[in-house]
Amino acid sequence: MNLPWQSEAVEEGAGVGREAGYTRPFFIAMASSFLLFFSFLAIFPISPLYVSEVGGSSTDNGLATWVFALAALLTRPLAGLLADRWGRKPVLVLGAVFFGSGPALHALASNIPLLLAVKVFHGVGLACFTTAYQAFITGLLSLDRYGTGLGLANIASSLAMIVAPLFGEWMVARFDFRTSFLTFSVVGGLGFLTVLLLPGQSGAFARQSSLDGGGPVEALRQRGVRVGGLWMALLGVPFGAFTTFLPLLASTRNLGGVGLAFSVYALANTLARPLAGFVVDRWGPRGVTFMGLGLVGLAAVGLAVVVEEWALMGLSALFGVGFGAATAALDTIVQSSVREALRGGAAAIQYTAFDTLVGFGTLGLGLVADAAGYGMMYGVVSGVVLLGAVAGGIVWRMAQERP
Which of 21, 72, 217, 268 suits a disulfide with 127, CB 3.0-4.6 Å? Predict the structure, then answer.
C-alpha cells in the first residue's frame, strides 16, 4: 500500500508483534459492535415516523438527526483523547452504557424536546464507542492488513443493519413504539455485557500514550488524517440523506416500507467492505475511494427520480457498495498515517468530520425537502458528492506533489 503521506507516519512498531490471524478479542469486539448497532439500527426505519407521531415535521426530522450528530461530533475529540490516554476499553465501556441504553430512553420521549435530549445522549454513546472501537481494532492488526482487517471489523454494524431495520418495522407493526424501544434496549444491554469481556489496555501502552501526547490535535498534523477527514465529511451528506429521509421519500411515493431497502443497503455494504479493504491493501486506496464516491453519487441521482420499489432496492444496493468501499479506503488512509498512540485521535478527527456533515447536511436538506420536495433534495446531494469527488482528486494530487 503506497500513500503519498505514508512517510509522515511513525512506523516504528507498526504491526510488530501482531499475530498473523484474527484474535479472540477481535471477534468479541465485533460481537459487541453488532449487538449495540442492532439496538440502534432497529430504530432507523421507525425514528422518522416516531418524530411524526409526536407532532414533528420533516424539518424536525432533520433537526433530530442534526442534534444526534452534533452531540457525536462534539464528543469525538474528547473520546479520542481519552482512548489514547486511558486505553481503549474504558471508553468502549462508557460508550456502550450510553449507546446501549438509548432505545430505552426513546420509550420515555413523548415530545420533540425530550426526543432531542435523547438524541444527544445517544450521540455521545455512538461517538465514544465507535472512536475507541476503531483504535482498538487497528491495534490488533499488522500494517499490511489494515484495509482487510478494518473492512472486516466494520461489517459488524452492516450485518446488524441487514436484520435490525426489518425487525424494527416488524415490532412496530405488531406492537407499539414503547414496547419496541424497550425490546431494542435489551439487545443494547447484551452489547454492553459483551464489551466487558474485552481485555484492558496494557499499562505499558497507557504510559507510552501519555508520553507521546496522543489526541486529535496531534493526529490532525498528519496529512493522511486531514485528507481522509475531508473525504469522510463529504460522505456525511449522502449518508445523512439516505438514512434520515429515505422512509419519508418512500412514504411520499408509495414505495412501501424501507426496512428491506436498509437491509439491501447493509448486505451490499457488508460484502463491499472486506473486498475493498483487500484491494486497498494490495493496490492502494485511491481508486477504491473514487469508485466509492462515484457510486454514491449515482445512487443519489437515482433516488431523486425513483418511482418503483424494485428500483429503490437496486439504488440501496448501489449506495451500500459505494459507501462501503469508500469508508474501507478512508479508514485505511487515516489509520495508516499515525502511530499507535494517536489511533483514537485519528479516528476522532475522521468521524467528527463525518458527523459534522451528517448533522448540518440533514438540517439543510430537511429545509430543501420541505420547500422543493425529496426529488430536488436528492438531486442536491448528488451534485455535492460528484463535485466533492472532483475537489478530492485535486487534494490528492496536491498531496502527491508536496514533499
Answer: 72
The tens digit of pLDDT for each residue in 142-157 reads 777 778 888 888 889 8
349, 220 contact by CB (below 8 A):
yes
Q: pLDDT of 241-296, one tens digit each?
A: 888 888 888 888 888 777 788 888 889 998 998 899 888 888 888 889 889 989 99
Domain spans of the chain, in order of start: 22-401
Alpha carbon separation from 273 to 35, 118, 136, 149 (Å, rounded): 19, 31, 18, 10
Whether residue 301 contacts residue 379, with contact meaning beta carbons closer than 8 Å, is answered with yes
Is the separation of the CB atoms in 48 and 109 below 8 Å? no
Query: Angle CA(237)–CA(352)–CA(158) in degrees, nearest 5?
Result: 65
Any idea which residue has 466487558 for its cell? 196
* Half-sphere CA count of 20, side-chain side, radius 13 A: 0
Q: Is 18 left (phi over 0), alpha (psi -120 to 50) or beta?
A: beta
User: CA 277 to CA 269: how far, in whole Å?
Assistant: 12
Give long-range contacts, CB 8 A cutoff, 24+ apart: 205-212.
205/87, 205/340, 206/85, 206/86, 206/87, 208/341, 209/84, 209/85, 209/87, 209/340, 209/341, 210/85, 212/339, 212/341, 212/342
Grid cell in block for residue 222: 498528519
CA torsion angle 67 272 29 142 (round to 10): -120
Query: What is the second-level CATH architecture of the domain 22-401?
Result: Up-down Bundle (1.20)
Q: Give me the helix-helix angle, 309-335 and 286-305, nearest 10°.
A: 150
Phi, psi of 338 (to 5 degrees): -135, 160
Angle at 339 between CA 195 and CA 230, to 5 degrees: 85
Q: Cell numbers of 237, please? A: 451528506
User: Please, which residues have CB within 8 angstroms of residue 372's CB and are 6 or more apart in sequence?
Assistant: none
